Amino acid sequence: MIEVPLLDLAGPARARGLGHGHALAGRLRGFLGDSLARLGYLTDRPVDLGSAHAVIAAHRDAVVAALPDLADEVDGLGLGARISRDEAWLLQLRREILGYSRVTAGDCTGYATARGAPVLAQTIDLNGNLDDQIAVLAVSGPRHRSVLVSFAGLLGYLGVNDAGVAVGLNLVLGGTWGRGIPVYLAIRHLLDTAESVEHAVAILNDLTLSSSRAFLLCDADRTVCVETLGAERRVLEGEELFHTNHFLHPDFEARDEMNVFARNSSRRRLESVRAIGIPDADDIAGHHRVLSTAPICVPDNGDIRRERTVAAVILRPDLRELRLWPGDPSAANEHVFSIS
Fold first, then answer.
1. Which pLDDT belongs to residue 299?
2. Is 57 exposed, middle or buried (0-12, 13-18, 19+ CB in 10 A)?
3. In the predicted model, is pLDDT for residue 276 greater than 70?
4. Pairwise CA distance, residues 45 & 114, whole Å
5. pTM
6. Among candidates 177, 214, 38, which has minimal Cα distance to 101?
7. Which residue ranges form the domains of the chain, and what is each CATH number?
8. How far is residue 126's CA from residue 183's CA, in Å, rounded to a whole number?
9. What's the rounded Cα separation, in Å, for the pair 252 and 158?
């Protein structure tokens, strides 16, 4: 059984970070000591804190300039966990330090709808065997409260806020990755500040992101997917939306960098989830079946470098609720978290 700590983070930014770091100090120090947050297992390039310093500093400067509240929270995380400032920032930047690989077995299958009661659900597919690093954060941010999934000290990954905005994501590959706001901190900023899907789209348009992603956004009235490619944004909208790991907007399709085998896997998952369809929001068993079904659920093949499903979630914007199955969702216990 996978332990999922729930951390209540409130107060000023530095205090939120201190509480997060203190609560997970032993776990985070152990993770950093495991081949530098397992990065050494995932690349053939030598990776150490010294060689990563320039990348860390560039992204940190971008966050300090654009999102100073979250930058202060990351620094507080380092103090609370008794790790260096660079180590605290490395935990936010593992994907940027790795860069993107065109070889991927999976990296999330998601869907959302505002039809009837709104719901957003997805698998979380990651390499690095990160299911032992899951935590749930109940955050009282500067504007909104939120409940969100985190991995290994990340300030955010996906979740829902008390304004009734749910945010999910998928990896897409394209453009040039570089200095900017890490995607997971961007999602945390959305949950801290967004009043609606429309507001969230406007916020994303104003952020300089470090890498390409597709953001699924859902509230009681609207469902959109924002695909990002460098400084460009494209919005997909519909009553029901499905997304895996290749660009769907016609403007971006020809610039997709995922290799053909990974793209075929992504298309199979997209076709599978579209064929099944989106269960009613209250049909928890139906959503669980979808998220546990191959090829939507990507199995563990024993290779730490290969993405696999390490969790599945259902977000209910209207209920301000997050349901989580950590690890392989077909064999996991359900955890339910809500914004009180």
1. 95
2. middle
3. yes
4. 44
5. 0.96
6. 177
7. 10-98 (no CATH), 110-338 (3.60.60.10)
8. 15
9. 24
